[in-house]
Design brief:
By secondary structure, the protein is mainly alpha-helical. Helix content is 83%, strand content 0%. Helix 6 packs antiparallel against helix 7 and helix 10 packs across helix 11.
């Protein structure tokens, strides 16, 4: 039930995230796209942890944007905790930490021009990430050796599966999976959005 609710919540989160950086129409389109995405709907139906991971990743990115708007240790800690929770739901969710790290670097070195705060912010983010990871994956505290062995075994299987693929076939398979997962319309909309963003970006 929690995963199904998370799948529904992700639609609202995508709307709020897009609305902070784009128009209302773009936010509605983004929310509608994820709401009818084949993989998202299917995995929500089967209650897989992928859906919970995606929801937490979007929440982490949204919180990172909030930190950009209102820099504070509390907002940074929450962003790190959400990124850690995403990684705890599924290890792939650790990619959310990249958005938090970028936000931290922008705030401390570009806007405030106080690189010394980068170390303090990094510590706050690291603590939040660990708290979030442990909250969504308590086994890391209860049975750390088991978690480590499972992670190493999964990594080994992934490397073996990748090595068995043709170097030319892998990109094609990833492209096919992307189109199948989110739909051709969403792929075209994403490409169109990138083109529009590049054409309308401020020029020096």
């Amino acid at each position: 039930m929690a995963v199904c609710r998370g799948g529904a919540a992700s639609v609202a989160l995508v709307y709020r995230l897009t609305r902070r950086i784009a128009s209302r129409e773009a936010a509605l389109l983004a929310a509608a796209t994820i709401g009818v995405s084949f993989l998202h709907v299917r995995d929500s139906h089967f209650a897989t942890n992928d859906v919970l991971m995606v929801t937490l990743v979007v929440a982490a990115v949204l919180q990172a944007v909030r930190y950009l708007d209102r820099p504070s240790a509390g907002n940074l800690f929450i962003a790190g905790a959400l990124a850690g929770a995403a990684a705890g739901a599924k290890y792939n969710g650790a990619i959310a930490t990249a958005s938090v790290a970028v936000a931290l670097v922008v705030v401390t070195t570009v806007r405030q021009r106080r690189p010394a705060l980068l170390v303090y912010g990094g510590a706050v983010c690291a603590v939040g990430t660990f708290v979030g990871f442990a909250a969504s994956n308590p086994a890391v505290l209860l049975a750390p050796r088991h978690v480590l062995n499972g992670f190493l075994q999964a990594s080994a299987l992934d490397r073996a599966a990748f090595c068995c693929q043709s170097s030319r076939a892998v990109p094609l398979q990833m492209a096919d999976a992307t189109v199948l997962g989110i739909g051709a319309c969403a792929v075209l909309a994403a490409i169109w959005g990138v083109v529009v963003a590049l054409r309308t970006r401020p020029r020096a």
